[in-house]
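Hey,
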Amino acid sequence: MAVIDLNKYSPLVTRRELGDEIYTLIKEGIDKNGEVDVMMTKIVSMTTFCAKQIFGRLYVELGREEYKKRVHLVNVSEDVNFIIRIGITNAVKEANG
């Protein structure tokens, strides 16, 4: 299992470039190791756009069951977890037209 530490991006994940970089890190971790722990201890907030760009995209690509098996959010605050759920919901709605 790979560990992806997002704390270097703290406290806010708000820019498209960061979203692209984080998505790539997580995706490569999954491709190489099967599963990833995403450390989010110092992430205070994230835009819903970035949540969709990172976690929503992974959710759509992997499917619900594989996403739940492979992507583990560690030390994520309730607020950030809520934003991530919104991003996933938006990505699924967009993918299903």
